[in-house]
């Protein structure tokens, strides 16, 4: 479904991604883990078109993504739930969800999608007319995920949904992800610092370190490999 | 307090509200542009001038005078000048402004900020002087029979007090408020309006939603231009104008927008309203020549006491 | 001396200009020659504030107008000579600058720019109300030199030329001193400047006072040349715009910008006006406007910088200098730290003692009850996941933030509530996660910015900077401009900048971010060497990897609180730390 080959990218003088290749098959849940500064967020921004790669190719369902402008990519079915949530603070919860549904698919399926999102995360229904900037961190994260789902995507990209959240709330978010996965069989690409949780949910994992993929495989092989521990703890 | 004093205060209050409503609309146009894309547009006053002439020529030569008569005609012409100026603003942004704002300037370490300022200064110069060439320096005005008649409110309080409301100013105020409400509905209720607000809140996240930021900016610029132009047309029914009139008003607009809080659209309206009130009420205690000085003193006071304005967010987005 | 040498080119240009002026006999063209100089001077006055600090002022007409009215009124009512009134106008402009600056510097960005608009406009109406709609300077034919009413207009041009040269000299002197460096640092990043020991408010006030004084003097001279002063001709918005236009057209932050801007724009507009003005009124404004728009789209930073950057780029291509790879001179790279370093700190005294430090933002407890000590000569690693409060802790330590509770004792003194530049003077240096080099300045000059907090003289600042460049191993690239450096070299340069102020405690915020393995090792080696030389260091990183061999102790933060504090081996085995980094389930799994 999504294929990256030899992608290099960065900001002005700082190269961040160095020759990254990865594959996401339809229906798969793929996790990308790695310590901070490894280039995970840049990888997502490159897929979304905010960062332009200096080399390599990105294909989505056979389409050359690099030829598609950033704002057109969501309409192909790619939903990006960005790092640090980035809800629209001055819009209400409902309006944020409507923004998610700017895509044609989101428009068509709006009624069922919104019901499903509210059923999954009832707190969003309760606060539907509240301004998003006044929500708590966990609620904003749920809204960001709901906003992504509202576009009726084929691929949901989640960038560190647990960031800055208290452990209990992060756990809750992970449970929600499991539920979404169980209900929809949606293809998910997840970037996460919390290795164990991320790998446990995922079918397949990539370990990114200093802009390179240093390890890939399924949950069990990755967890057995001591290199993850090394990447994080240095010993 | 003698009834004369009360009458004077009420009269100034009424005049302030009438002037303030149109100023408010004027400010909303600028506030929209600033709020969505953080562009300081110095040509906004000249866009307003174009709106005045557009309404003037539409009224005189597009058969509107013949079709709608002298009373309704001017207002039809004013409303029609809106779409015209929308297109103008849309293209000015596409051809010029977009080249010095947004991602292209990201690498310039804040210099892009100066570039857009001086660019709009250049546009302002072209419009003012081009206006002089095309329209001439003779004072123009859109006179309606209403300009010279007034409604009398009252008398009340024992027949002592009555206020006179100039009819064309009254109508200008009403049209301004209607236009403001319509714009507010557009921004808060329609998909396009919500997308504009999303783009203003967080352009990158808006891109993740599939919103074309460049197009949103162009639309916002066009809308802002159109709204200010309509306010200009309404002013033109009460005051004569000339190609350099924009200079007199651009400052008032900025004062209003800052008063209301940079980035807030309803704030901009109330900011403009405040300017109108301060201007008219100050005549009660200050000599007329100091009327405008009073505006700027109030402006400075508020900026120091409450820099985020009446309605602004506490922190300016960086 | 250097300032004098730097004036050679301006003097040459001035000499040529003077020759041209002497040949021109037509009084209209002579006036134009004078006005070019007046507007160039005005642009330079504006540039002292807005060009160097980046705080765009729309209100310089306030100073210009006050200067003009000082001369006009002084001559009308007291019969004083302009030779006295122009300096007096400079004084008035300077004082006005301080009065405007004190309240207005509380505002930033757009708010500052827009607030500045209000001053000249309020003054405009006040002067109208005072009845000074049109002041004509009295004609003094009997004493032309005393009253600067020359019959030969060439004298005006010469006086203006001398004035402009004086302003150029002042600007150059500012540029090369700590004054200019402070302003540039403020433009780049005010917070970082404050952290580098620069008293930002103080320098900004000096800048606006000098800027106002120059502008006041120029306004005064303008009144003398034109003999008529009206509120709108000196306080009007177009006057402020004129300063902005000539400087930005030519390029801000350089003496040449205003000179180029005025030399091109003023004649173009005047000639158009003279040639076509009668037939097509306003044509000069249209052409002027189009020229501005075209130049801004082609060169958004102004003509000067565009040309300079182009020449610079063309330069190396024409004569390729052997690009010696910037080698970091290392005695023994990647040597294990503690093997070489005796644990001297164990016997040392406490340099920084933090007790129960807390701060919250809204409901979020960003840092809570954090307590730790840093001993002299030790390297402390502060680690923790994203959002753990590491940078907030640094912001508390160097004075950017004031804690809600707790104490920060530096060398025994409680520093809570001190401003960042005071802490820097006391010996707390710091680098930032996001690098902010001055891209067009050399490495040496970049580093020098950090030296002024210690240096008494320019000489000493230069010496401290050279020493710091040497210590971080950048001597080989010291004369390169920062824009040409690699990420690693930039990181080292930032380190050098902090080091130039001779800090006793150095706070390093993610100095290794964005570096590859080999590069990180090189930077680590530099940090180790600094520690051996006696600098106490606290370093923030997300990851432990490159830190494990570097630091003497770890302080692990999670959710704003201290999770663990101890020696590296112990900390990396601490289950709580592993949980924070790899998740609870990892620990469960590992135990199983």
UniProtKB/TrEMBL annotation, chain A:
The keyword Transport applies. Pfam families: ABC_tran. InterPro entries: AAA+_ATPase, ABC_transporter-like_ATP-bd, ABC_transporter-like_CS, BCAA_Transport_ATP-bd_LivF, P-loop_NTPase. GO terms for biological process: L-amino acid transport. CDD domains: ABC_TM1139_LivF_branched. Residues 2-235 form the ABC transporter domain. Gene3D superfamilies: P-loop containing nucleotide triphosphate hydrolases. Signal peptide: none annotated. One of its GO terms (molecular function) is branched-chain amino acid transmembrane transporter activity. The keyword Ribonucleoprotein does not apply. Belongs to the ABC transporter superfamily. PANTHER family: HIGH-AFFINITY BRANCHED-CHAIN AMINO ACID TRANSPORT ATP-BINDING PROTEIN LIVF. This is ABC transporter ATP-binding protein. It comes from Limobrevibacterium gyesilva.
From TrEMBL, chain B:
Keywords: Amino-acid transport, Cell membrane, Membrane, Transmembrane, Transmembrane helix, Transport. GO terms for biological process: amino acid transport. InterPro entries: ABC_transp_permease, BCAA_transport_permease. Pfam families: BPD_transp_2. It comes from the Bacteria. It is found in: Cell membrane. It is a multi-pass membrane protein. One of its GO terms (molecular function) is transmembrane transporter activity. GO terms for cellular component: plasma membrane. The chain crosses the membrane at residues 12-35, 47-68, 74-96, 117-142, 170-187, 219-239, 251-272, 284-305. Belongs to the binding-protein-dependent transport system permease family. LivHM subfamily. This is Branched-chain amino acid ABC transporter permease.
From TrEMBL, chain C:
Residues 352-584 form the ABC transporter domain. GO terms for biological process: D-alanine transmembrane transport; L-alanine transport; L-isoleucine import across plasma membrane; L-valine import across plasma membrane. SUPFAM superfamilies: P-loop containing nucleoside triphosphate hydrolases. It is a multi-pass membrane protein. The chain crosses the membrane at residues 31-49, 61-78, 84-102, 109-127, 155-174, 208-229, 241-266, 286-305. The keyword Transmembrane helix applies. SMART domains: AAA. Coiled coil: none annotated. GO terms for molecular function: ATP binding; ATP hydrolysis activity; L-isoleucine transmembrane transporter activity; L-phenylalanine transmembrane transporter activity; L-valine transmembrane transporter activity. It comes from the Bacteria. Its main location: membrane. Keywords: ATP-binding, Cell membrane, Membrane, Nucleotide-binding, Transmembrane, Transmembrane helix, Transport. One of its GO terms (cellular component) is plasma membrane. It is found in: Cell membrane. This is Branched-chain amino acid ABC transporter ATP-binding protein/permease.
């Amino acid at each position: 479904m999504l294929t990256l080959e030899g992608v290099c990218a960065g900001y002005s003088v700082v190269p961040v991604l160095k020759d990254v290749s990865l594959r996401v098959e339809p229906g798969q849940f793929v996790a990308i883990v790695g310590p901070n500064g490894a280039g995970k967020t840049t990888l997502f921004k490159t897929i979304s078109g905010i960062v332009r790669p200096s080399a390599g190719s990105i294909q989505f369902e056979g389409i050359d993504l690099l030829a598609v402008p950033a704002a057109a990519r969501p309409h192909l079915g790619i939903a990006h739930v960005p790092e640090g949530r980035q809800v629209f603070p001055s819009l209400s919860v409902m309006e944020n969800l409507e923004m998610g549904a700017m895509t044609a698919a989101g428009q068509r399926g709006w009624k069922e999608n919104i019901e499903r999102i509210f059923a999954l995360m009832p707190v969003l229904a309760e606060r539907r007319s509240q301004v998003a900037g006044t929500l708590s961190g966990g609620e904003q994260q749920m809204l960001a995920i709901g906003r992504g789902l509202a576009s009726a995507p084929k691929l949901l990209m989640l960038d560190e949904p647990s960031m800055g959240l208290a452990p209990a709330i992060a756990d809750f978010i992970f449970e929600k992800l499991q539920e979404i996965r169980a209900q929809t069989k949606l293809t998910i690409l997840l970037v996460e610092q919390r290795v164990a949780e991320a790998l446990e949910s995922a079918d397949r994992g990539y370990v990114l370190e200093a802009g390179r993929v240093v390890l890939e495989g399924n949950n069990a092989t990755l967890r057995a490999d001591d290199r993850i521990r090394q990447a994080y703890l240095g010993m | 307090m003698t009834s004369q004093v009360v009458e004077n205060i009420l009269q100034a209050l009424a005049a302030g509200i009438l002037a303030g409503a149109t100023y408010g609309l004027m400010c909303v146009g600028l506030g929209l542009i600033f709020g969505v894309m953080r562009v300081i547009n110095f040509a906004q006053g000249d866009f307003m001038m174009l709106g005045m002439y557009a309404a003037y020529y539409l009224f005189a030569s597009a058969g509107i005078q013949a079709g709608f008569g002298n009373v309704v005609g001017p207002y039809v012409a004013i409303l029609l000048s809106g779409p015209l100026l929308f297109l103008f603003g849309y293209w000015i942004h596409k051809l010029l402004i977009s080249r010095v704002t947004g991602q292209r300037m990201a690498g310039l370490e804040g210099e892009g900020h100066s570039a857009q300022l001086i660019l709009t200064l250049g546009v302002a110069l072209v419009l003012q002087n081009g206006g002089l060439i095309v329209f001439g320096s003779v004072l123009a005005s859109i006179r309606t029979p209403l300009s010279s008649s007034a409604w009398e409110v009252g008398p009340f309080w024992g027949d002592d007090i009555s206020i006179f409301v100039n009819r064309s100013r009254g109508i200008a105020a009403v049209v301004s408020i209607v236009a403001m409400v319509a714009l507010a509905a557009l921004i808060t209720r329609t998909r396009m309006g919500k997308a504009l607000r999303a783009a203003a809140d967080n352009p990158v996240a808006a891109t993740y939603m599939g919103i074309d930021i460049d197009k949103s900016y162009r639309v916002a610029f066009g809308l802002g231009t159109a709204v200010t132009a309509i306010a200009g047309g309404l002013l033109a029914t009460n005051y004569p104008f000339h190609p350099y009139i924009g200079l007199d008003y651009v400052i008032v607009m900025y004062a209003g927008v800052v008063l209301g809080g940079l980035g807030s659209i309803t704030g901009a309206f109330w900011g403009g309203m405040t300017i109108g009130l301060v201007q008219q009420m100050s005549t009660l205690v200050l000599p007329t020549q100091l009327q405008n000085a009073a505006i700027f003193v109030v402006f400075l006071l508020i900026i120091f006491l409450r820099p985020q304005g009446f309605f602004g967010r506490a922190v300016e987005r960086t | 001396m250097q300032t004098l040498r730097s004036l050679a080119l301006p003097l040459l240009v001035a000499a040529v200009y003077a020759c041209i002026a002497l040949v021109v006999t037509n009084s209209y063209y002579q006036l134009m020659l004078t006005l070019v100089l007046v507007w160039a001077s005005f642009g330079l006055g504006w540039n002292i504030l807005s060009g160097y600090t980046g705080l765009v002022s729309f209100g310089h007409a306030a100073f210009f107008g006050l200067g003009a009215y000082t001369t006009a009124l002084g001559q009308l009512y007291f019969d004083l000579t302009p030779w006295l009134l122009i300096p007096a106008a400079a004084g008035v402009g300077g004082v006005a600058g301080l009065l405007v600056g004190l309240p207005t510097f509380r505002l930033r960005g757009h708010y500052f720019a827009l607030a500045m608009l209000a001053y000249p406009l309020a003054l405009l109406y006040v002067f109208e109300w005072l009845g000074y709609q049109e002041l004509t300077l009295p004609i003094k034919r009997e004493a032309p030199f005393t009253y600067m009413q020359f019959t030969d207009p060439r004298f005006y041009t010469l006086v203006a030329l001398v004035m402009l040269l004086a302003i150029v000299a002042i600007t150059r002197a500012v540029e090369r001193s700590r004054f200019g460096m402070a302003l540039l640092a403020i433009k780049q990043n005010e917070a970082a400047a404050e952290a580098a020991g620069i008293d930002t408010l103080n320098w900004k006030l000096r800048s606006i006072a000098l800027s106002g004084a120059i502008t006041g003097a120029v306004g005064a001279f303008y009144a003398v040349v034109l003999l008529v002063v009206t509120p709108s001709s000196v306080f009007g918005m177009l006057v402020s715009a004129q300063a902005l236009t000539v400087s930005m057209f030519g390029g801000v932050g350089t003496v040449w910008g205003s000179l180029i801007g005025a030399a091109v724009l003023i004649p173009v507009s005047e000639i158009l006006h003279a040639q076509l003005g009668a037939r097509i009124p306003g044509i000069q404004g249209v052409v002027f406007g189009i020229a501005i728009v075209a130049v801004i789209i082609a060169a958004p930073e102004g003509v000067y910088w565009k040309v300079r950057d182009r020449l610079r780029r063309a330069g190396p291509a024409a004569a390729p200098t052997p690009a010696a790879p910037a080698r970091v001179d290392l005695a023994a790279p990647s040597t294990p730290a503690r093997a070489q370093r005796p644990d001297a700190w164990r016997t040392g005294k406490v340099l920084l003692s933090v007790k129960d430090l807390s701060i919250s933002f809204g409901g979020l407890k960003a840092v809570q009850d954090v307590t730790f000590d840093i001993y002299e000569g030790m390297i402390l690693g502060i680690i923790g996941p994203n959002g753990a409060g590491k940078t907030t802790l640094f912001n508390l330590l160097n004075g950017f933030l004031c804690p809600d509770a707790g104490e920060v004792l530096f060398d025994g003194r409680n520093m809570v509530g001190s401003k960042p530049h005071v802490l820097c003077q006391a010996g707390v240096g710091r680098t930032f996660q996001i690098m902010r080099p001055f891209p067009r300045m050399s490495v040496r000059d970049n580093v020098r910015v950090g030296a002024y907090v210690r240096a008494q003289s320019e000489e000493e600042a230069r010496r401290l900077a050279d020493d710091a460049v040497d210590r971080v191993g950048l001597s080989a690239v010291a004369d390169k401009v920062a824009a040409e450096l690699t990420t690693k070299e930039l990181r080292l340069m930032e380190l050098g900048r902090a080091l130039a102020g001779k800090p006793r405690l150095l706070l390093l915020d993610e100095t290794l971010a964005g570096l590859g393995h080999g590069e990180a090792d090189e930077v680590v080696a530099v940090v180790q060497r600094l520690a051996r030389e006696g600098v106490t260091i606290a370093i923030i990183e997300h990851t432990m990897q490159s830190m494990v061999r570097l630091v003497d102790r770890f302080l692990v933060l999670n959710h704003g609180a201290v999770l663990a504090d101890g020696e590296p081996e112990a900390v990396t085995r601490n289950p709580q730390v592993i949980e924070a980094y790899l998740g609870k389930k990892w620990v469960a799994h590992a135990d199983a």
